[in-house]
Amino acid sequence: QVQLQESGPGLVKPSETLSLTCTVSGGSISSHYWSWIRQPPGKGLEWIGCIYSSGSTTYNPSLKSRVTISIDTSNKQFSLKLNSVTAADTAVYYCARGGMQAIDYWGQGTLVTVSS
Amino acid sequence: DIVMTQSPDSLAVSLGERATINCKSSQSVLHSSNNKNYLAWYQQKPGQPPNLLIYWASTRESGVPDRFSGSGSGTEFTLTISSLQAEDVAIYYCQQYYTTPPTFGQGTRLEIK
Questions:
Q1: Count of other CB atoms within 10 angstroms of residue B37
Q2: What's the rounded Cα separation, in Å, for the pair A100 and B75?
Q3: Is residue B35 within 8 Å of residue B29, measured between CB atoms?
Q4: I need a labelling partner for A22 at 20 to 30 A (CA). Which of A8, A43, A48, B13 fits?
Q5: How far apart are CA A100 and CA A58, in angstroms?
Q6: Quick one: closest CA in A to B105, which residue?
Q7: CB B101 to CB A61 under 8 A?
Q8: Rounded to an integer, what distance in angstroms lies between the CA atom of residue B75 and that of residue B53?
């Protein structure tokens, strides 16, 4: 059974960079798309972007200028960096398997709060 | 972006009764090359991540009870729960993965009447 686990700071200051890592276990990281998706408290889901195991990335145009997703296949991890954060970036951040198809495995999510 | 609009926003159904949730996309998500609708449904319970129920508009994910079914094509889709159980209380989302960025509906909250 594939499992994903997000890790990273739960509090980020405005204008700084949000950095999260997702560790994949119970399955291969190869030959799959891996996504980051966020959900502001009490609101809906927003797809941030995805990376294929080869390293090819696709980003949501609304966030593209601030987002970088990278992958480390040897350690079965992929990462998210979001620059110049504001309070509007406060959300539960999920890592997930899928991206250009239905998303079949999700991490439990991690709440990141942007506040000074 | 393709805009996904769900209806209703909330729904209360009696135990054992049928629940129907609708999803409309702002453009077709039917791919002519393979005749597949790039549409998924998810269930999200409080404090949990979404859980995939249906993909390709009507294919049930492994382990999902057969009381859940998906239908529709092009721009109009429906998720049906044939006989509502207490554990089905959740928010349901549709999602298109036809084009980038994948987009979700605003969610439909399903409760017990």
A1: 25
A2: 19
A3: no
A4: A43
A5: 9
A6: A44
A7: yes
A8: 19
